[in-house]
Design a protein that fits this description.
Radius of gyration: 19 Å
Number of helices: 12
Order of helices and strands: HHHHHHHHHHHH
Distance between the termini: 47 Å
Strand content: under 5%
Number of strands: 0
Structural class: mainly alpha
Amino acid sequence: MGVLRLNRELLEGFRDMLPLLLGVVPFSVVYSVAARQAGLSYLDTVLMSLIVFAGASQFIAVTLFGAGSSPILIVLITLLVNSRHLLFGVSLSPFLRQLNSKLQGLLAFILTDEVFAVTIAHHTRASPSYRYQLGAGLALYAAWNITTAISAALSFPLSISFASVLRFIVPASFLALLVPMVRKRTDVVVGLSSGVAALILVPYLKGGAYILPASLIGMIVGGLLSFLWKSR
């Protein structure tokens, strides 16, 4: 029974990730083409997806690489953009504390925006399970890296306009998954607060650096509203 449960939960996570792969796969194609055009070799392009595994940060890294930026600057900006995963980790930590450090490390490595979204949605409607997150993460990891390897090998030209359109696919699919999760008035206010804060910060914080402060503003607003409404 334990093995059957393990397989079922893994497959559920894998299954629920499949619709989002329709947006992730084209995004991976754009990344691999952009990386080759920036001067990265085939091996460099593939290894970045295998080791870094962070779509937005990979785009920023190859853009900075193509512009001749220093390695230190590339690493610092990549870390800054990926700092939003700290917030994801805080949200998921209550479900992962009982796991050993190696398994926690694996789940942290394959954690992405999409994996976080489907995992949190699952935890709100069913019994929390790290196996579900593992299945979702492995599905996305496999799809992203297989697509990267194939498209980088083909190295076909991609028009700028088409690439720009594809870059909106993943955020759009993430929003499509997020909207059904907004059920309470606090959720609405938090989402609007973070969105407005992001729009205000975009001109001042480039390269996705606005994501973390905008998220923190949303969290603060949500905490204050929850306290005020409960105290009434």
